[in-house]
Amino acid sequence: MAAAARSSAGEVLPPALGAVSEPPPLFDGTTRLYICYFCPFAQRAWVTRNCKGLREEIKLVGIDLQDKPAWYKEKVYPRGTVPSLEHDGKVTGESLDLIKYIDSNFEGPALLPQDPAKRQFADELIAYAGAFTKALYSPLTSQVDMSDDTVAALDKIEAALSKFSDGPFFLGQFSLADIAYVTILERVQIYYSHLRNYEIAKGRPNLEKYIEEMNKIEAYTQTKNEPLNLLDMAKRHLKIA
Ligand SMILES: N[C@@H](CCC(=O)N[C@@H](CS)C(=O)NCC(=O)O)C(=O)O
């Protein structure tokens, strides 16, 4: 069954499509972003679309991953993961590639700076986002205590946040680098607090300020889920403990 429609700061989110839902009319020229409303990777692309003011140009299609429609893998995106973007007659995926693609192929504010030093740091940060995610999730999914790797990964981003002093974000000003990390930080902050009694921002003033400032950005806050809902879903579906 398709889940009920959600609303997010003025935007009515379409109901998530399930196994018995019809697919949208594919390749009719409409640009569609296929997401699951609870997925941190899909959320990266969703935040990027919101930041660039592309609500009209990029239609959201919610996919219910607990009741995934067969047509999603068969007709839309053979890897079967979200996010994916239907644009210009093709479908592409991988969140870290998609955020760059959306930034460079659509109208709206540029989400990467011109400054070469900042650009290079953005590339480094985006390239590290996968390893960061793994370092933070693996103690939870393998149900072990905090590891040195986890602490080191958090310390690394705390240090990265001090590289540019013209603002609280990774490159000083808000950019794609922030979008690469914030959806993961949103979740691990909740999980570590509840499951390891560990506050990721405690003793990390840059990270604390960063989270505070990110929570002022509507294009992001519109995409957030209830913390306890995220915790419950992760316990059930990722078996984190
Ligand atoms: N590396 C991919 C990961 C995407 C991913 O794993 N998404 C999950 C949901 S959070 C998914 O689609 N899983 C497939 C499924 O549950 O059927 C990306 O960054 O886009």
From TrEMBL:
InterPro entries: Glutathione-S-Trfase_C_sf, Glutathione_S-Trfase, Glutathione_S-Trfase_N, GSTL1/2/3, Thioredoxin-like_sf. One of its GO terms (molecular function) is glutathione transferase activity. It holds the Pfam family GST_C_2. PROSITE patterns: GST_NTER. Residues 29-110 form the GST N-terminal domain. It comes from the Eukaryota. Belongs to the GST superfamily. HSP26 family. PANTHER family: GLUTATHIONE S-TRANSFERASE L1, PROTEIN IN2-1 HOMOLOG A. This is GST N-terminal domain-containing protein.
